[in-house]
Amino acid sequence: MATQSSGLLAVWTDVEPAAEADFNEWYDREHLAERASHAGFRNARRYQSAQASPRYFAAYDTRSLAVLGSPAYLKALANQTAWSRRILPRMRNTTRMIAALASDAGAGLGGAMLTVLLAPGPAGAARLAEALRRDVTKPLAALPGIVRVSVALGVVAGLEMDPKQPPRLAAEQPAAVALLVEGTDLPPLERVSAGPLRDSALRAAGAGAVQQRGLYRMLKTVLA
Predict the structure, then answer these.
(1) Which member of 60, 82, 176, 177 lies 3.0 to 4.6 Å from 9 by CB, making a disulfide possible if both were Cys?
(2) pTM of the entire predicted model
(3) CB count, 10 Å around CB of 173?
(4) For 37-84, what is each residue's pLDDT tens digit?
(5) What is the DSSP secondary-structure string of 43-101?
(6) 3-class SS of residue 124
(7) Separation between Cα atoms, residue 147 and residue 219, nearest integer Å
(8) Which parts of the chain fold into alpha helices (H)?
């Protein structure tokens, strides 16, 4: 299980249809392993949805938030591989989130993932994350078929961005708060999405709006 000082990089994206096969090969043959090789990374994993938009989701757990702003990692971002330079401009509808894990209940990695991106209400992101930690994460993690529940609190955009990076990356903004619910399969996550994590319940916890909701199946995981 991660600790409250742990970091998370999460990426939701679509890709141009003509580049999709190359995109999937890039992730599976190069990108996940390359990211997981950096000091401080715990894992690199990616998911796909048949229904959600964006269609692809990737998550990278790190031992601390500082890992995502370390000189070594920023150097790698500023010196992308040739394959990465070919793929990145073909990605569309991309959201990148650099976050601290405000809470993390359960253990292990599930074969499916529910992601919910939230804009905070008037009380702010920290209050929303605390309410979710207090009222949501532990009860959800105890439900049948649920493996892990994490609340990620987005930090200021730019922590992992470097002036040498393409402008399209520097312009992307992280979501304020994300709920990541991992399950053994999709049905337990569908029940959670329609029940404890329905829009009205999240607004009652302090969310101003549900920006995005998606169910994903795991494609591949690389452990550091």
Answers:
(1) 60
(2) 0.90
(3) 12
(4) 999 999 999 999 978 899 999 999 999 999 988 888 888 888 999 999
(5) EEEEEE-SSSSSSEEEEEEES-GGGGG-HHHHHHHHS--HHHHHHGGGEEEEEEEEEEE
(6) coil
(7) 17
(8) 20-26, 32-36, 71-78, 82-87, 125-132, 138-141, 167-170, 186-194, 199-204
